[in-house]
Amino acid sequence: LTDWYLPSKDELNAIWDNLVNDGTGVNSGVGGFAEFFYWSSSEDGNGLAWFQNFYSGYQYGSDKTTFKRVRAVRAF
């Protein structure tokens, strides 16, 4: 299949807001997202990219060489 891709930082934030966050500001466990960091496809400068913290919902920029998880999504 060719319709899978790494979500942008805005798409990851929408997943957090609409699926994972249960209104308390922490991970509800819905969607199978572990309480870890997930890379987005959005760059944050030379050698940096944005990631989403799926414990607190915050986003940060980080060096692309650091270890983080990924979650591909499908286009619809």
Major beta sheet, strand line-up: 2-3-4
CA-based shape: globular
Query: Could you say which structural class the secondary elements and strand pairing correspond to?
Result: alpha+beta
Mean pLDDT, rounded to whole units? 91
Strand content bin: 25-35%
Low-confidence stretches: none
Terminal CA distance reads 13 Å
Descriptive overview:
With 76 residues, the protein is an alpha+beta fold. It is built from one helix and five strands, in the order βαββββ. It is globular, with a radius of gyration of 12 Å.
Keywords:
single chain, 76 residues, alpha+beta, 5 strands, globular
In short:
Helix content is 16%, strand content 29%. It is α+β, with helices and mostly antiparallel strands.
Architecture blueprint of SSEs:
Blueprint: E1 4-5, H1 9-20, E2 37-43, E3 48-53, E4 59-63, E5 73-74
Antiparallel strand pairs: 1-5, 2-3, 3-4
